[in-house]
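Re: adenosine-5'-triphosphate structure - here you go.
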Amino acid sequence: MEALSSLEPLIGEAKESIARLSSYLEELSALRGMGQVLQDRVDSLRRQMDDMYETVALGITAEAMSHEVFNVADRLARRAKAAQTSLHNRGVGDRAMLAFIEHVHSAVMALRKQMSFLSPALRYVRERREDIDLPAFLEELRKEFYQERLTKSRITLAIVSKNDARFMVRMNRGKLVQVVDNLMLNSEYWLREDLAQKRIADGDVTLEVDRPFLRIWDNGRGIDPTVEHALFQPFVSAKARGQGRGLGLFIVKQLLDSEGCGVGILPERNKHRRLFKFQIDLRGALND
Ligand SMILES: Nc1ncnc2c1ncn2[C@@H]1O[C@H](COP(=O)(O)OP(=O)(O)OP(=O)(O)O)[C@@H](O)[C@H]1O
Ligand SMILES: [Mg+2]
């Protein structure tokens, strides 16, 4: 009897311990779930790093390649010139030959022109700043760089000036090209989707110049609500898997930050109730 009564408190304690233990066990299984979440997070971060390295590697390759393309173009131009002179000196007027040399000349010019838009974004010229007349710059970009490619996709690019004020900025030309190009690439991508799905009959992109702002928007579906809160963060994309890295807008923001400028999305919504208007604030680079 005495033994039994001395057991009682022990049993009481054991019961308590069991209760505590089972709550620990619950916590443990919750933690195990957490472990899975962390594992997933680590996996996804690792994938993002891989993407990042790949992108950086691509940039380095592009840099090397652009250098080489310029060299090849130069050699080609020199050789063509030499051939032309030699034909001329020998008084040979072979029409086909001369036409061919002319063709080489214009091909070299076209190559240089295309490269000259892209290569300023590459490092060896990135730090150079120059005075840029924004409306004229955009017009040139439209004519020489976008027109042909957009027309093929049934997309029109309009440049509108909201006021007639002079709009001069001092910044790196290549950076500005890259900023505009990343935004254009987005518009092109989503407009092409919408055109293919017959959601719209024509694609329109508008660049609105309104000192000190530059706005860009298109008549496509607009920004998917699932990404609107984190648009300018890296690796945020609503493109189909494997199609977008979600780096375009992040890069736009970084490039503008580095010039004391900024980018945002305006609160205005389109008929699908989606955000759609990007605004670049160039106050930090105004020059006059
Ligand atoms: N003009 C646009 N129309 C509709 N959605 C857009 C537009 N511009 C951006 N977005 C949305 O913002 C997301 C992020 O754009 P961002 O340029 O950063 O990445 P991405 O285009 O998906 O990938 P990447 O630019 O690396 O190829 C896009 O996936 C898209 O959902
Ligand atoms: Mg993009």
